[in-house]
Write a structure and sequence with these properties.
6-stranded antiparallel beta sheet; 3-stranded antiparallel beta sheet; 9 strands; elongated; DNA-binding; Lambda_DNA-bd_dom_sf; RmlC-like_jellyroll; Cro/C1-type_HTH
């Protein structure tokens, strides 16, 4: 994975016409470090990778997401679980299904604590959702109401209702979600 991240950085840097020196000036990382990183000879912390992502004008997920082919896997072992998406550097999504042609999308989502209380924007979309809290306290905003959900609690609702969820605690929250992926007919 280290070599993959380094190669993605190198490809993107060259695509944008930047030299190692220009990337170094923008990120405060040495040219030597960036060179080693691009060649897969060193590792990088997520917060440092985020700095490079900002400099190259991409989301952090660009470097973490795997270029996976659509497969028809029925069973995904715990050790095969891969990060599928990182959103706002706070939500880490793991796909729990190998077959993207099915109508449900199960995911494990880890929600990191937020540094500051932020305004939560609720939104609707087609389909329906089910969520189950594994760890921590999840705050669910739905239809103008808020609910604190604890481990073992669940919710099932039409996604067409304004909704969102967040972590208002100082501990990680882990949930399983299942979204229908086909549009309502």
């Amino acid at each position: 994975m280290i070599a993959d991240v380094g190669q993605k950085i190198k490809n993107l840097r060259k695509e944008k016409g930047l030299t190692l020196k220009e990337l170094s000036d923008d990120t405060s990382f040495s040219v030597g470090f960036l060179s080693q990183l691009e060649r897969g000879l060193t590792t990088i912390a997520i917060d440092s990778l985020e700095k490079i992502a900002k400099s190259l004008n991409v989301e952090l997920a660009y470097f973490i997401q795997e270029d996976r082919k659509k497969d028809k896997t029925v069973v995904i072992r715990s050790y095969e679980k891969e990060v599928s998406q990182v959103t706002s550097n706070q939500f880490i999504h793991y796909d729990l299904c190998g077959n993207k042609d099915l109508s449900m999308m199960p995911r494990l989502i880890e929600i990191l604590p937020s540094k500051a209380k932020e305004q939560i924007k609720s939104y609707p979309h087609c389909g329906e959702e089910f969520l189950y809290v594994l760890e921590g306290i999840l705050t669910l905003h739905i239809g103008g109401q808020s609910y604190d959900l604890f481990p073992g609690d669940s919710a099932h609702y039409q996604s067409t209702i304004d909704h969102n969820w967040c972590n208002n605690t100082n501990r990680i929250v882990k949930i399983i979600t299942v979204h229908s992926t086909k549009k309502d007919t």
